[in-house]
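G., the chain you wanted modeled:
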Amino acid sequence: MIPVHVFSGKTVALFGLGLSGIAAARALRAGDARVLAWDDVEAARDAAASEGIEVADLNAVDWTDVSALILSPGVPLTHPAPHWTVAKAKAAGVEIIGDTELFFRERDRLNSKARVVAITGTNGKSTTAALMAHILKSAGLKTALGGNIGTAILELPPFSDDSVYVIEFSSYQIDLTPGLKADAAALLNITPDHLDRHGTFENYAAVKSRIFSRLSASGRAVIGIDDEPCRQIAGALPGPYDVAQISVKTPVTDGVRASGGKLFEMQKGVETACVELAGIGSLRGEHNAQNAAVAFALARGLGLDVPEIVRGLRSFPGLEHRMEEVGRLGNVLFVNDSKGTNADAAAHALASFDNVFWIAGGLAKEGGIEGLSTYFPRISRAYLVGEAVQDFARTLEGHVDYTICETLETAVPAAAGDAAASGLAEAVVLLSPACASFDQFRSFAVRGDAFKTLVSELEGIVMSASEAA
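Predicted structure as tokens:
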């Protein structure tokens, strides 16, 4: 845990008692602040009270005594309407910040030399953050990974001058972190998302661009340029820091181009390094080539040499539930992409393989899978599960053979049997549902774990090293 002393002796209001909220309450209390915590969910309030956190109805407190409101990133700050605690804080002139802001303020208070790598983007930020942390750890650096991925930022180890913190930021977190100051920062891409929370696409893009707002003068800004919003941001970036552009579509003069299964590092138009990605199963597909290019550029900005980065790339096990290679049964590879909860995400997975025995379905998102028609020729057969079976069946009718399975328990052995009998040199049983999980599972992670368990029960299966460990 990182104790936060910047509000020592003061009273702080906190709303939202999920993982990050609880971590913030603990950190503030450890730094001698009085925390008045609240959540609209009674069970969350009870859990906080059980560990000694002071629970107080923020409707009834005297806001003139409050120094700051710590707001959970999941709570509306501006759109579709400010949360009631936001209105109360603004009326009292109380600043509104998040747990990520506490992290940076405490680093500043300590004048710590710990470095921060900040990563955001609409898609790919989790994989890139995990890959970046893995590269740094494999190079022997003291590394911590958290934020919007895995561990709440204030649950990470305390600051030390030799530490590197790799922090994934959602747009919600950036919105609550005016003091965000990284030593290296990356913006992968921007596509329409979370417009209900930001009002317009322009607002959303503006928030994402703030990942670079206080980048240190000696730092590195890494930005994908394959979408128009990022190209516009990149055009306005050059300043006191180094800018590395990333593309999987066009040449770059300064940065990293991913093309033909390779990464090409460019400096002033001259190729300075070439890295082969072929054979790295955890980094299949064009989208993962972009992730790898971003991580490569960030690592170079932190001073790592090419062989150190290559070792990290080649040993990366992948992000759990995202293009995760689970095991093999003869000619059949089993891949868990349960995190593919919409058609765009499933498209990345389908584009990465031929001869796909595709397990899809669940709680459908708007638009279904009609946008995936480009990838239908890659699908040998589909196995449909969950509430979306009839809608998906109508879309696939006449284009892709399918079987209505209803459940994973039926789909996995059916897909495994058909793939094994196909006679193909390599067939892939791919769980990439293009749907939310909530019709049958509590989360995409629980769904992915169920898939992996069913695969592990197949006779003759050889599980991957990470799954067998």
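The radius of gyration is 23 Å.

Shout if anything looks off.
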